[in-house]
Amino acid sequence: MIPIKESYQHPYSVTIRLAVFGLIVGLMTGGLTTLFGRVLLWIGEWRTSHLSALLPFLGLAGLVIVFLYQHFSKEAQKGMALVFEVAHGEDRKIPSSLIPLVILSTWLTHLFGGSAGREGVAVQLGAAISHQFDRFFTFPKHEQVILVTGMAAGFAGLFQTPLAALFFALEVLAIGQLQLYALLPALVTVYTASSFSHLLGLEKFTHVIVTTPELTVSVFVKYILLGLFFGLTGNAFISLQQYLKKQALHYLPNPYWRITIIGLMLSLAISLAHFGRYAGLGTNLIEQSFSNQQIYSYDFLLKLLFTTITLAAGFQGGEVTPLFAIGASLGVILAPFFGLPVELVAAAGYISVFASATNTLLAPILIGGEVFGFHHLPFFTITVIISYQFNRKQSIYGLQQALVIDVE
After folding, report:
1. Helix, strand, or coil here: 185?
2. 3-state SS, residue 402
3. Is residue 20 part of a domain?
């Protein structure tokens, strides 16, 4: 018999060290993401209560954000791009200054009404923490193992979906390729970070859906069509984000002027659009989507627009929670046309738009299971596969690599 080549198997001594490393990174990242997440939730509540006093100063908050990065670490301003560069060997260092900078700038973005997410911050925090352990390992690909472990810890600590966090970190760096060399420390770290942040009191969003229709041929076809709609929406988010960034850089090359002018425009637009309905994470739209409250037919479009503008201007945060909100609110609108349960279609949109925009397959399916119930996986799998297959040529992560296979 021919032995299987152990391409990502480590000696037992290294394996034990990696498991301990995963435990330590999970505890550190779980604690830090709890601090970040709990303050962010408090900021969201306080902003909602004082929106009229805070929203006009979004542009000034942007000035502070740009100053902090320009003065303390221009390299850290790359954010997720820097994490990808280090993981791909194109850069060698994630500065420790990234940690306070990305936390403070994201808090400022949300405090004054910017429409942004939070997962990018958590992933950066985990990567920055794990990167500090680089000097303790010397085996091949140890840089990638360390970063994948930290990214998984950040996602798990913030969202408390350990299985989804595990596979998100394993698959997000390269389309069509799992970074299995980091499997063990990532497994240890996601459950550590998730459990520790939960123990410290960070909230987790769950909404178990009871209604489960029979998976007939007709329902199967409907979910395929829904996957197309969600895939188109994820693509639209990426395309608009890339276009707006290019236009902002072209017409407003000075970062101070760019964030100030766009920030002032955002303040006015967000105040006029249902007075702050599209500010912040978008958790209000998610909650309304799953509680039979008012969802407008244009909610997903305006949330998509305000989020892409906010990030193009240079404000900090992430895209994932707004993508969840965009998908869920779109699902509420589409469900009646397909004659399917509203909550189930909203849940499918919640994960499928995220799948399309990030070019991840397994993580969105597992988010569906961990948030809405694993008995719905057959439905979630259909829409996610279609939305994922519909894209794979662009991503919110510009440095995501693709596994190219010559089929000729």
Report:
1. helix
2. strand
3. yes
Residue 363's domain comprises: 217-402
DSSP 3-state of 110: helix
Query: Which CATH number is 250's domain given?
Result: 1.10.3080.10
Residue 137 and residue 222 share a domain: no
Q: Which residues of the chain have pLDDT under 50?
A: 1-2, 4-7, 405-408
Q: How do residues 272-321 score in pLDDT, each as one tens digit?
A: 999 999 999 999 999 999 999 999 999 999 999 999 999 999 999 889 99
Distance CA 405, CA 216 (A): 34
Residue 47 is assigned to a structural domain of this protein: yes
Domain assignment present for residue 284? The answer is yes
Instruction: Please state, in angstroms and rounded to a whole number, the distance separating the CA atoms of residues 18 and 24.
Output: 10
d(CA 28, CA 34): 10
Indicate whether 248 and 393 sit together in one domain. Answer: yes
State pTM to two decimals: 0.94
E strand or H helix that includes residue 174? strand 174-175
State the pLDDT at residue 177.
Answer: 82
Left, alpha or beta for 357 (phi > 0: left; psi -120 to 50: alpha)? Answer: alpha
